[in-house]
Amino acid sequence: VIDGRDGYLIDLLGPPGEGQNRVLGAMVVDGDRVWFLKMAGGIARVEKHKKEFEDFVSTLKLNGPRPERSDELSYKTPAGWVSGGGSGCDWTPPGTPCGGTLAWPG
Fold first, then answer.
1. CA-based, 20 to 30 A from 23: which of 11, 12, 33, 96?
2. Residue-wise pLDDT tens digits, 38-62
3. What phi and psi values does residue 63 have, to the nearest 5 degrees?
4. Distance of CA 4 to the CA centre of its chain
């Protein structure tokens, strides 16, 4: 349950070997909408920020569609994370290149 709605957390590993990747994801069902969030990267980088991602997901508040406002989703930004600056990322750890809507490993 995330913000009183059905929610799911996933933890996926890519093929084993050097450079193995990991994805942590969250999916929140909000009526006819579904919110997806992910943190992806090398295993060590994702593990380093796993607790931050889980804490972030626990702060999600879905405010419903509001055409006159852009804050359909509110959350508490993890300490030390910075704005993606309009690059397609909302928030990233310092020094992390943006690779999607939310890019977390750093």
1. 33
2. 888 889 888 988 998 898 888 888 7
3. -95, 0
4. 18
This model's pTM is above 0.85: no
Other beta carbons within 10 Å of 20: 12
Question: What SS3 string covers 34-60?
Answer: EEEEEEEEEHHHHHHHHHHHHHHHHCC
For residue 34, with 0-12 CB atoms within 10 Å meaning exposed, 13-18 middle and 19 or more buried, which class applies? exposed
Q: What is the DSSP string of the chain?
A: -BTTB-EEEEEEE-SSSTT-EEEEEEEEEETTEEEEEEEEEEHHHHHHHHHHHHHHHHT-EE----TT-S-SEE-PPPTT-EE-TTSS-SEE-TTPPP-SSS----
Hey, what are 104's tokens? 């977390």
